[in-house]
Amino acid sequence: MEAYSELDAVAIAELVTGRDVSAVEVMQAALARERATEPTLRAFRQDFTAQALADAKEIDRVVAQGARLRLAGVPIGVKAWDGLDDFQTIRLRREGCVVIGLTSVPKSTTEWQTWGFTERGPTVNPWCSDRTPGGSSAGSAAAVMAGVVPLATASDGAGSTRIPAAWCGAIGLKSTNGRLPARDSAGLNVPGAIVRSARDAALHMSVLLEEEAIGVASGKVLAATWSANLGYADVDSEQAEIAWAAAAHLVGAGHVRWHRATADLLDPEPAWIAIRGVGDGLADAETVRRVNNARLQELFNDVDVLFTPTTPGPPHGHQGPGSTMSVGLTWAFNISGHPAISIPAGRAADGTPVGLQAVARHGEEGTLLRLVADLERLNPWPKRAQPTRPEGRPSSALVRHSI
What we know:
The chain is α/β, with parallel strands linked by helices. It has helices at 9-17, 23-41, 49-64, 87-94, 138-145, 162-168, 198-208, 237-252, 269-275, 282-302, 332-336, 365-378; strands at residues 44-47, 75-79, 98-103, 117-118, 121-122, 151-156, 171-174, 190-195, 222-226, 235-236, 256-258, 305-309, 340-347, 353-359, 398-399.
């Protein structure tokens, strides 16, 4: 199949359902792409080639009999920690997805090594091989933006869907806590997926919620505010500037209007650690949660959307992030439960992608999905990584105050 690697899931399903191509042909294209990229990408821990071809053949059989599957014949990667028995995988397969393999996750022996690793070495960023794709849904993001699959499952306990989506130039949604079964006892870890298009993001969410379609907010101009650092994070100026420019596209086109409101939160790090049961201080953690929840409630009384950069800094090398807290701008919303999404915003001077994070009120994923669709039309992003060799390093200048 020509141009397979740039097709989204909706397009593939339409081709298979219309019997313009077979699910087997799609699977052969996906597996060929995997063979071509995997020696250097290392996005998969386990390969399901034989089973995938058999499953694709079965999809062709039921489609020929008239079955209407919303994701008929769509190849997907599944995050290794989730596996085939996870509720998300089951619902996606029920709609016609075919699993080609389990995507890479961090080493289990290193507490803070949160980027992907396989027995053949680390998973690499498909844009720049000396950088990580982010974690912990590293292999899923790498596989999607390398054009191996249009959709791969992920999960987000502190930013593990949004961060790799941002660093690989994809879309990653963390839904409202509680709408889907949590991946951890603390209720912070939310299942999701990494995709390349707005319509795939919306379809994926509707499948997980077992709804015909998720309501995507439309019509009114959305009131929004911007914070470069949420009041506590150290943020690279280039990341902030590129994310800000993406949000400004939405303002310039009349989809969003700026509203003066302040997103000034307490640093959630100690609270997140205590809530996860890693450290002491649960009473103090609940104080942080209560204060931040109150401030966010007040904020969302006035605005529909909060914009930030997705990450404080660019993708780090395989040696690790150093002192940078890559989750600095994401994990506050795992604690508060607000839905948040990373949208491709552009590329830094070194060629690596930058994400724009948008946050909405509880239950308003449709607002975020609308913003993705609007920005995709205004400022289309590459549907596949365009590898580059960095000639320089990102700016180390820090933005300590909201713009």
